[in-house]
Design goal:
This protein is of the alpha/beta class and 289 residues long. It is built from ten helices and twelve strands. The protein has an eight-stranded mixed beta sheet with strand order 5-4-1-8-9-11-10-12, sandwiched between helices. It is globular and about 50 Å long. It starts with 11 loop residues before the first helix and ends with a strand. The structure holds S-adenosylmethionine (SAM). The site of S-adenosylmethionine has 21 residues, from α7. GO terms for molecular function: 23S rRNA (adenine(2030)-N(6))-methyltransferase activity; RNA binding. It holds the Pfam family RsmJ. This is Ribosomal RNA large subunit methyltransferase J.
Length: 289
């Protein structure tokens, strides 16, 4: 595997993913009951936007750095955007060129009753992540395949404590895109047998839209109450060679999460988009209850 997230940290896809993640965590925290988070592809937890990898691609420059500039000029950013930016700022802990990965964002959102299991396959990335989360007794790093770990981690428990709520973030590198989709849908189908009420958040890249259709068709057959795709396109989705945007596919999302997230998408497109940038929310399956 060649993928290293350091080249892409803080890009438009990270921004969308982490904004949605913060909104999901906040929705879960509306109730006192504990929740369990599984991050199947966690990465190293903290990235240096001034470092060699980020500087080589310039993706953060076209991503979070543009959003920071726009937000600084906004008198009242939409609440979900403000909460995402606050989460990033809190994780930076005074280091303005650092950017948090998903496990650090989750870790700092946990309450004493909540837990995180963060899976990372690459030993060097997992070791860095262990250091980043070493202060947090409620987060545990699993240096292993996240898809296989899901089988052991669901239904969620911590010693004698069983959890009635869980969020599973699936954020693979898509090095071979066509091979990743069956891994995702297979893992989610199995996880739903173990924990049908789980909330799943699956990140996916968008190049040309038709390549997504088989994946969405498969997802629509999964036994979930609802499925919502939240997408940000930084340019039209007509180039097969570039990542034109990305999406977060939410299975069993918290009630009315779209109302929190939608107002934040316009500023994301304004800040990080080129000509033809857009955003959209699409229900693949909607709970009529
Ligand atoms: N979720 C992270 C975030 O938002 O900060 C970024 C994750 S990055 C897109 C994907 C990560 O998954 C990489 O660090 C890669 O080493 C790791 N990885 C790849 N295949 C994996 C697997 N089967 N199980 C667990 N981790 C894997």
């Amino acid at each position: 595997m060649n993928y290293r997230h350091g080249f892409h940290a803080g890009n438009h896809a990270d921004v969308l993913k982490h904004l949605v993640l913060v909104s999901l965590l906040d929705a879960l925290k509306k109730k006192d009951a504990p929740f369990f988070v599984v991050d199947t592809h966690a990465g190293r937890g903290r990235y240096d936007l001034a470092g060699l990898q980020a500087s080589r691609t310039g993706e953060a420059k076209a991503g979070i750095r543009k959003l920071w500039a726009l937000a600084a000029a906004m008198p009242t950013p939409p609440p979900a955007l403000a909460r995402y930016l606050a989460a990033v700022a809190a994780a930076q802990a005074g280091a303005p060129d650092s950017y948090p990965g998903s496990p650090l964002i989750v870790s700092q959102a946990l309450r004493p009753q909540d837990r995180l299991a963060a899976c990372e396959l690459l030993p060097d990335e997992a070791n860095v992540l262990k250091g980043v989360l070493s202060h947090d007794p409620h987060s545990h790093v699993h240096a292993r395949d996240g898809y296989a770990a899901l089988k052991a981690l669901l239904p969620p428990r911590d010693g004698p404590t069983k959890f009635a709520r869980a969020l599973v973030l699936i954020d693979p590198p898509y090095e071979a895109q066509d091979e990743e989709y069956p891994l995702i849908t297979g893992a989610v189908a199995d996880a739903l047998l173990r924990f049908p009420q789980g909330i799943f958040a699956i990140w996916y890249p968008i190049k040309q839209r038709p390549s997504l259709h088989p994946f969405f068709r498969k997802v629509a057959t999964l036994p979930v109450k609802s499925a919502l795709a939240i997408e940000l396109l930084v340019r039209p989705d007509d180039s097969p060679l570039r990542m034109n945007g990305s999406g977060m596919l939410l299975l069993n999302p918290p009630w009315q999460i779209e109302k929190d997230i939608e107002p934040a998408l316009k500023p994301l497109a304004q800040a990080m988009g080129e000509a033809g940038a857009s955003w959209r929310l699409t229900w693949l399956k909607q709970d009529k209850a």
